[in-house]
Amino acid sequence: MILPLEIQNLRKTYKGSAVEAVKGVTFTVNGGEIFGLLGPNGAGKTTIISSITTLEQPTSGTVKVFGVDVCKDPMFTKKQIGVVHQEVINSGFFDVEEILEFHSGYYGLRKNTERIHFLLNKLALYEHRHKKVKQLSGGMKRRLMIAKALVHNPKLLLLDEPTAGVDIRLREDLWVFVRELRNEGMSILLTTHYLEEAEELCDRVGIINLGSLVELGNTKEIIRQYTHKKIRVVMTENVALQTPYLTEVVGKEYFFIVPQNKTLGEFINEVGIPTHLIKDVQIEEGDLEEAFLKLVSSKEVQAPL
Amino acid sequence: MTGFVTIFHREIARFLKVIVQTVITPFVSSFLYLLIFGVSLGEQMSTHQGVNYLSFLIPGLMMMGLINNAFQNSSSSIVSSKFSGDLEDLRVAPVTDREIIWAMSLGSLVRGTLVALITYIVGSLFMLYQHGQWLTVAHPLITLFFTVVAGLIFGMIGISVAFWATSFDQLSAFSAFILLPLTYLGGVFLSIEHLHPFWQMVSKFNPLLYLINGLRYGILGVSDVNIWTATLISLLGFLFFYVMAHWSLKKGSFQRW
User: How far is CA A264 from CA A34, A232, B257, in A?
Assistant: First the structure.
């Protein structure tokens, strides 16, 4: 099966640098999915994006877009890709509509007005189409970057931190839009600092730290595997409980941290909580942030200094 | 092909957006050069190669304007794109290096030719005023040839320098320390016949001498150098800088500053 993106053992060492920025990363983006690449600053996310867009040449390894090596037939692969760069591009000479027209031309599309107007409307930029980039707000600039990436209707969209500096309402609008694109069949690679965003949007995630992938898989499974449930049990009277899960007792409230794979029934039975004395139970599920921090910090300990 | 047309269109649109800086300023400087050197000082100068000094000066100033503006058009377009970050778009989009080089050099040629044409018209008006005759072009095809080749060469030099430059300083250093001396010493204002034989010989190593004299031959029918030598050297220069521009795109940086 031809995958939108296949990265095999990608390595990159920048000229003049002793450190490998990407150390043998392998992953795929499957058709119609949103794949999240998560990692702290300097983890190598942008280098991976740059290798896909041929802005950087890999030191070794292969990057294939729809089965074609990006180094062997870049003209084909570039046409399939839309990319939203991390930093806002601030073209000083032209207005929003002109920028999108020129950008369409780079992709071989002349008179792309219909698509451009559709995107301007979709991204709430239509009224600002005659403004220069510097006259736009931070959020509008971001949306312009997204519109640029979509003028040629790409099959694979690379979003490098698309919601950095965007307010919460707009971020949620963008999430809706990204999901719509996915539902239309676009495959999306997203890098983000916002773990909430990745948890909300991504079908699968890869967690990268210091140039290596430390975990790769289904978002929900990773959360299940690397997080704990926090359980708060309120009793009608105090009971003596001997269990390593118990972290704190405040009055008649008992706080436990329990592995995700344990069901509530198993937990109650194992700890021996008398059910007739339970007044209330609250369960707080783990999130991606917890899993991420665990994975990233464990790797940092192993990393040579 | 659409990529090429788009970049070419963008290059023209860009310099037209800042027309005061790109076309009007060269017009003012040509006007002043012609007024001071051509008209005022020219009356006291002997004739050069059988033509009056004002008409000798006009092709030199045309080539100087052409070269400078062609160089500045491509180089400042690339450098400002590096500054704003949209140069990366060109690397990410499916446009070939050849499309980028041709579109940008042709954009440079258009701006350079516009400035040269303005200089020609202003110069001719001075000629009409002072000598009662319009400056006619002796060899239109040769004029066209040297205009096109010089515009493309300096567009490509602009591309090469801008891709390697890592700051605005480096770009202006190239203009001030290489381009300006070579232009001034390349026979814009004086025939090299008036130089000491040693400096005449040194001047023959200045490639700009051949472009300037080529255009002068095209317009006036007189030249310090053999026209075939000038043609050959210009074509070799074109090939050299075409290869150089390709190499710069391959090895230079598209990254933003």
Answer: 32, 11, 56
User: CA–CA separation, A284 vs A302, rounded Å?
Assistant: 30
> Which CA distances in Å does A268 have to A242, A258, A271, A272?
12, 11, 5, 6
Distance from CA of B178 to the nearest CA of A (A): 29
Q: Which of B9, B18, B88 sits opposite A55 (nearest CB)?
A: B88
CATH class of the A5-223 domain in this structure? alpha beta
What are A90-106's pLDDT values in tens digits?
777 889 999 999 999 99
CB-nearest partner of B254 from A55, A75, A87: A55
Whether the complex's predicted ipTM is more than 0.90 is answered with no
Task: Show the tokens assigned to A142.
Answer: 């971001």
The phi, psi pair for A107, rounded to 5°, reads -95, 15
The C-alpha atoms of residue A85 and residue A146 are separated, in whole angstroms, by: 9
Backbone angles phi, psi at B32, to 5 degrees: -65, -45
Q: What is the domain partition of chain A in residue ranges?
A: 5-223, 228-285
Reading across the β-sheet that carries A60-65, which strands appear in turn? A20-29, A5-13, A60-65, A68-69
